[in-house]
Amino acid sequence: MKQDKKIPYKIYLEEQEMPKKWYNVRADMKVKPAPLLNPGTLQPMTAEELGAVFCDELVQQELDNDNAYIDIPQEILDFYKMYRPAPLVRAYCLEEKLQTPAKIYYKFEGNNTSGSHKLNSAIAQAYYAKKQGLKGVTTETGAGQWGTALSMACAYLGLDCEVYMVKVSYEQKPFRREVMRTYGASVTPSPSTTTEIGKKILAEHPGTTGSLGCAISEAVEAAVSKEGYRYVLGSVLNQVLLHQSIIGMETKAALDKYGIEPDIIIGCAGGGSNLGGLISPFMGEKLRGEKDYQIIAVEPASCPSLTRGKFAYDFCDTGMVTPLAKMYTLGSGFIPSPNHAGGLRYHGMSPVVSQLYHDGLMEARAVEQTAVFEAAEQFARIEGILPAPESSHAIRVAIDEALKCKETGEEKTIVFGLTGTGYFDMVAYEKFNNGVMSDYIPTDEDLQIGFNGLPDVPEK
Ligand SMILES: *Cc1c(COP(=O)(O)O)cnc(C)c1O
Asked: Given pLDDT bands bounded at 50, 70 and 90, which one contains residue 142?
């Protein structure tokens, strides 16, 4: 491995160098993300309405478009110390393997038991619930990363944690389920008979294996119908992006420490929280006209919300119980192909990321899953880390950009977000290894079905 003497393989921040504030990119956006709307009145959701579902302080953060920096409470900083700072790694081995003049860095968020960046927001949301004197929180989980992260945070703070897990995952991913239970969460397969909406769905579709949309509906009902509970969500919302800005703040601090200026910043995008968090401080500089960066969101070709979706108001869930968010969406009724291995299967996208993309401040690329797993395998073999399929979307585009540099001879500096590890995704890897993984790309007709279901919201 050839190493630049000035740049270590892993850049760590000292404890005293760790960021103590989250950065709220909305403060620097000239065009603010559109507000959440009450689906009944089509009026912006008020703090009071949101407060029935979410914790008070999180509602304030959700609605705050003005304060650029928000202090991270000491209790959260203490928790962050257990697994942060996350290293910024110079991918020297990958560079050598690719024979590229590009310099590649990745921010690794998989160094905690939940295996992803989701713990950054889970601890924040659980903390504010605890501070409000609540008994517990409810949530949904699909593949299980978010449920695991929230279980860990709740265990630490002594909060009750109720997770509605999509039934098919509950049955197919028993290990994720048991990790959550080990951390004290109660895990209910969704749809269930514990909620009215669950009973209704079961009566209408007996034998259904559930969906994320259905699990959200159940978790929201469970929260609002019980004293002392609120609902929490692992992505999409402004507050989640705010918490995830810790990724970008640390990345920027680590780069600044060595005088490194990135040219390209890449992140995978499901609901947009890790990407939004990673790019936030860099986007802030771009919005203030101080610097320019090429920023790329990477999404699966099977669920192409940014590259082929519509920028419109839509429900955040399939059950149509949530407020409306203005975002790039494929329609809340869009069901991505089941064979897709990654967890980037959300129909919509964070309103912040959507607005930035709409305003031409960043790009998006859709990649096919076999190409993603080729990149994952290459990365695992040369850099050692077994990446999550979601994270591997960013790896794919980082490698593509590095190979472009090889052709042009440009020495670009590429930074990408490695959001987590893939130990619980071995069924997907197995398919890839057996050569039976397929690429499914929806046709325009497929997408039209989802668009037809978009709610009718008059433009202001
Ligand atoms: C949940 C998840 C994602 C996608 O979520 P975002 O909100 O888009 O960041 C990406 N990578 C991993 C490992 C995840 O668990």
From this structure: confident
The secondary structure element, H or E, covering residue 136 is strand 136-141
C-beta of residue 323 within 8 angstroms of C-beta of residue 39? yes
- Residue nearest atom 4 of ligand 1, based on CA coordinates: 270
Ligand 1 atom with the smallest distance to the CA of 421 is: 13
How far is the centre of ligand 1, averaged over its atoms, from the C-alpha of 361 (Å)?
A: 21
What is the full DSSP assignment across 285-348? Answer: HHHTTS---EEEEEEETTS-HHHH-EEEEEESSTTS-SPEEEEEES-TT----TT--SS---SS
Q: Give residues with Cβ within 8 angstroms of 52, minimum separation 6.
A: 224
Strands 310-315 and 21-23: unpaired
- The gap from C-alpha 163 to its chain's centroid, in whole angstroms, comes to 18
- The whole-model pTM stands at 0.97
Q: Residue 239 pLDDT more than 80? A: yes
Q: CB-based contacts of 364: which residues, under 8 Å, 6+ apart?
A: 269, 296, 297, 298, 299, 306, 307, 357
- % of the chain surpassing 90 pLDDT: 87
Nearest to 141 by CA among 335, 4, 343: 343
- Which of 244, 246, 273, 296 for a ligand 1 pocket mutation test, highest count of atoms within 8 Å of Cβ? 273
State whether the beta carbon of 269 lies less than 6 angstroms from ligand 1.
yes
Per-residue pLDDT of 321-334, as tens digits, reads: 889 999 999 998 88
Q: Which has more pLDDT, 207 or 76?
A: 76
Cβ–ligand 1 distance for 419 under 6 Å, the answer yes
124 close to ligand 1 (CB < 6 Angstrom): no
